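Thread: Newbie trying to understand structure tokens

Hi all, I'm a second-year student working on a class project, and my supervisor (Dr. K.) asked me to get a predicted structure for one chain before our next meeting. I've only ever worked with sequences, so writing a 3D structure as a token string is new to me. If someone could post the tokens and maybe explain what I'm looking at, I'd be very grateful. Here's the chain:
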Amino acid sequence: MRYWMVLCVGLVPAGWVLAGMQHYGAALHEAKWEVASSRLVCTLSQTIPLYGTVRFEGRSGGQLDFAVQVRAQPGSSGVAQLASLAPAWKHDTPTLELGEVPVSGSSEPFRFERPLARRLLAELEKGMFPTFTYRDWADGRDQVTVTISPVKVKAALGEFQRCLDDLLPYGFGAVQRTLISFAHGGNVLSPDAREALDRVAEYLLADGSVGRVEIEGYTDNVGFRRYNETLSRQRSELVRDYLVGKGVARNKFVIRAYGETKPVASNRTEQGRAANRRVIVLLTK
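---
Reply by user tm_fold:
Sure, no problem. This is what the structure looks like when written as tokens:
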């Protein structure tokens, strides 16, 4: 029965219904894969007529998900069976049972993380048809099958993989708060500070949703209070100017100079004073 259903994907309109059965899948002439790419997000998607859209999504930092967005959401949670079916002409290829998967009551009833997402990509690359099977969400009388077509997927997979390879190796959480340290009385960026700021700049140039960059400058308590306030501002402006030099728009920045007023450690020790000589870069969306 399963082989027959997969063969029909290319022969009958999507969304056909027989007594006690509903099937959704893109016919041969409908099957189309689309890739959208940036340094932060890569998507590979296929529309299933009358049902919804399946989507693989890679994000900066290495995250990879698979999701199905449906036109009519279930309304309650449940389970479905997931299997990878061979087309009829590969009659010697066995079905790969991928087991029971959860169904959420949202507009994305199916969502998987990297291991299963990778497996589905591998099955599609082999020309297999990943297929969900479950009882219908209305009254449970019909068996529903939803098939993802591998037709025309290979070229799209190549483009999708190139996008994944070009994603930033870190996400927003890794650069949302960046600490820059300074030597006593110093107003010079160390090699480590430049490397950290290069990451911040690279991310800011990739993510236009970051609307504000707050730069907070602090010092230890050595010297006069007014001098330290000026020094903290100079350090903040140094960091800002470095990021602007990397291409970040100047109007994103807010400078705050706190001088010696907000220590994070005791100024009685060199270690504590070193911790207090800092600039914090905060990104806000």
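A couple of things are worth pointing out once you decode it. The chain has two domains: 2-166, 172-284. The radius of gyration is 27 Å. Feel free to ask follow-ups in this thread.
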